[in-house]
Design goal:
Length: 754
């Protein structure tokens, strides 16, 4: 059965299937100088026999192992280094050695010795490969062909260790350099020239003939730059050129047909490189992006760079292709480094902000809720509410939410959407009219909300509505239109609320374990972690509660993996990193139509089979937008589509101090020197207090203490606070427990104060 998975990145929507869909989207991972590439012009790409990826740039040769780069560059003090940093072509011979074409000849890398050798063999014409190399390729006989500027064509026989130089410019119709070469199944050598077009030879280059169309008896490629000749299935050649776009030459019939001459804007296509992903799928690299041409249907997809789409091609000038062993496509560009498309991996459909009106608003998706009209409401922590039409797959922004952009809870009550916000109370929205009907906030009344930050909303089967806040649990009283506070949960940070099939109410708390209200006993029971008891709750920070189709209760935690609850014994079976979890921080669980569980974590998406207790982990390598997910980060619709949200909190967090005036600041009296100890804690919970020293903020002075800064739902505990009066900035630091005790870690950006 085909499983459907969706993730949001915001919003990642993923379709889990080995087969590609008809309306396939292409999401690229970019490797550039920012994350290790030597330089962003990539003229050549190769995967060697050991699986390493090699990238030839204008400033060196890079080897990539999937995680990190190793750089090879010219070193004047090392005669066995790469002799020139301008790499133009790459080829691996039958012995596993890497031939590197450069601006000044060829160098051979020997993996066993980890050294380079300058290829200085002398040819039958007493010449050496000394100029810029345009191409290196091999044939079925193990020979290496080299095209060099103003030196025509070389052929090196590895077995005989002999070099032959073919002076093709002796032919009366040839005056330019060789651009590309291939040998077809019959042994015919086809050569593309930089300005003289397409030629072939059936006698090992003893004679050379221009290609003449059998239809009009004309030299089709006369005065054209033939940049690529690629053998394909069914005894066909595929030819890319400057003037002629892309054509197919059937060697059996002799027919030449146009595949792609102009783009959708009627602009001529300058083809630089070609690659077959499958027998019927031809990738075309041009100056205006990449084209994916289907030979069976005659239709194509045009992929281009977009400044609003971080997963588009990084650059439109495509210079090189390579298909790896896993059928992934690597694309070298002129300005944008390398783009990677993991073709064979699980396909995840993705939605993310693109700066367009009809795209997702907000980078941190947290909540999902489907209404009665086929609309999925998506709450974000930074962009308010989005409406996603499940049929048309179109987004629309709910404009009134611009006033309450930080959403932490969603619940549908009839046609009313209950919206829990951070710091701005509870909003009631009419999903039919799209209007905000009412706002509830904390006030002096004991029957008001206990707190304005609402993290969870649950409507029970009997119609009761519970709200979890930072400081406790409340129950909505419909008759009096206010709230009853639950004393057993007073002061508890309630993260999630679920009603099980027996009508019992389960609560996940931030630091106090899990609570369960037994409807028969009418009592609350608290489940907590006991280090001495392996069957207790695995961790006291519980992020979510889930009941599967077998009525089993699962709990996820922020540090102890996830647990299965056993009601008979009131014990737990725990699963953590020792069992294969990529992270012990697990946010939420969702069940697919096959009864398997999907878990969102801090380090990937986990597919868990309860029956066998086996796990499979999906990460960015499998097509995810990111490995870190968010709270309440999953939802399954009635069609089996599963939605996941990615957390972007690994981006630099910012704390904004609102309305901080001098009279609201703490005054420590005497000036503080660096490392001076503070006499009181710094508490800025309401964003109204800062520190001043002698009436002014000291430039680059440091305060040491136990400072607690609250921003959104994140609590920053700092050991040092640094102020810069000139730049009007405040920076928070804390000890990094993972490092030595003398190392300070910056836990937030420098932020402005007013």
């Amino acid at each position: 059965m085909k499983k459907i998975i969706i993730t949001f990145i915001s919003l990642i929507i993923g379709i889990l299937s080995r087969a590609q869909t008809v309306n396939e989207h292409y999401y690229f991972k970019n490797l550039s100088s920012q994350n290790g590439l030597s330089q962003n012009t990539v003229s050549a790409i190769l995967q060697d026999s050991k699986g390493f990826m090699w990238f030839g740039t204008k400033d060196g040769l890079d080897r990539y192992d999937g995680v990190s780069f190793r750089h090879f560059k010219y070193d004047r003090n090392n005669p066995r280094s790469l002799g020139n940093n301008f790499v133009t072509s790459l080829y691996e011979d039958i012995e596993g050695n890497i031939w590197v074409g450069t601006d000044v000849g060829v160098y051979i890398y020997y993996p066993e010795k980890d050294t380079f050798r300058h290829f200085v063999e002398q040819s039958d014409k007493n010449t050496r490969v000394e100029r810029a190399v345009a191409m290196i390729s091999g044939d079925s006989q193990g020979r290496v062909w080299i095209a060099a500027e103003a030196q025509n064509l070389f052929c090196y026989d590895l077995k005989k260790q002999t070099l032959r130089n073919y002076i093709l410019t002796d032919h009366p119709l040839v005056s330019t350099n060789v651009k590309c070469l291939t040998v077809d199944n019959s042994g015919t050598i086809w050569i593309g020239f930089y300005g003289d077009g397409l030629f072939y030879s059936k006698d090992e280059l003893k004679t050379l003939h221009p290609y003449i169309s059998p239809i009009d008896n004309e030299e089709t490629y006369n005065n054209d730059v033939v940049s690529e000749i690629l053998p394909g299935a069914y005894n066909c050649l595929y030819i890319g050129s400057l003037k002629g776009g892309v054509k197919e030459l059937n060697l059996t019939s002799g027919k030449l047909r146009d595949l792609l001459l102009k783009d959708e804007d009627n602009e001529s296509i300058y083809c630089r490189t070609l690659l077959f992903a499958t027998d019927n799928e031809l990738w075309i690299g041009t100056e205006s992006g990449a084209y994916i041409y289907n030979l069976r249907t005659g239709k194509y997809t045009h992929l281009r760079s977009s400044e609003y789409d971080p997963y588009s091609l990084s650059d439109n000038a495509i210079y090189s292709f390579c298909k790896d062993r896993e059928d992934g496509i690597w694309i070298g560009s002129y300005f944008g480094g390398v783009n990677y498309y993991p073709r064979s991996y699980t396909h995840f459909e993705k939605y993310y902000p693109k700066g367009e009106e009809n795209s997702l608003h907000g980078k941190r998706v947290r909540e999902f809720c489907r209404d009665n009209y086929g609309v999925l409401w998506i709450g974000t922590e930074d962009g308010g509410l989005n409406r996603f039409n499940l049929n048309t797959k179109e987004f629309s922004f709910f404009a009134p939410s611009a006033g309450f952009t930080n959403i932490h809870g969603l619940c549908l009550v009839d046609d009313k959407l209950w919206v829990g916000t951070f710091s701005k109370g509870l909003k009631i929205i009419d999903t039919r009219t799209g209007t905000v009907l009412k706002t509830y906030q904390k006030n002096s009344s004991p029957r008001s909300l206990i707190d304005n930050s609402i993290f969870a909303i649950c409507r029970t089967a009997t119609g009761d509505i519970y709200l979890g806040t930072m400081f406790g649990l409340v129950k909505y009283n419909k008759q009096s239109d206010d709230f009853d506070r639950i004393p057993e949960l007073n002061g508890k940070f309630v993260y999630d609320i679920k009603e099980d099939s027996g009508g019992n109410i389960w609560l996940a708390t931030y630091a106090n374990g899990a609570y369960c209200y037994n409807v028969n006993d009418r009592k609350w029971k608290n489940y907590v972690h006991d280090e001495k008891d392996t069957t207790s709750l695995s961790y006291n920070k519980v992020s979510s509660i889930f009941e599967d189709s077998y009525h089993r209760i699962w709990l996820t935690t922020q540090g102890g993996g996830f647990c299965l609850f056993h009601p008979e014994s009131e014990t737990f079976t725990s699963y953590n990193s020792t069992d294969g979890l990529p992270s012990d921080v697990v946010y939420q669980i969702v069940e697919d139509k096959d009864g398997q569980l999907w878990l969102t974590t801090n380090n990937g998406l986990v597919y868990f089979q309860p029956k066998t207790e086996t796990m499979k982990v999906y990460t960015t390598a499998n097509g995810l937008l990111g490995d870190q997910f968010n709270y309440r980060s999953s939802f399954e619709d009635e069609n089996g589509m599963i939605y996941f949200s990615k957390d972007t909190s690994n981006d630099k967090d910012k704390i904004i101090l609102f309305q901080s005036k001098a009279e609201d600041m703490y005054d420590f009296g005497e000036p503080l020197n660096n490392d001076a100890k503070a006499e009181k804690n710094i508490i800025s919970h309401n964003f109204k207090s800062m520190i001043k020293v002698n009436g002014e903020v000291n430039s680059l002075s440091t305060v040491q203490g136990d400072a607690v800064i609250s921003a959104d739902n994140v609590i920053y505990k700092t050991d040092y606070v640094s102020f810069n009066n000139n730049d009007e900035e405040i920076t928070f630091y804390s000890w990094n427990d993972n490092l030595d005790t003398d190392t300070l870690e910056k836990i937030a950006d420098s932020v402005s104060y007013n």
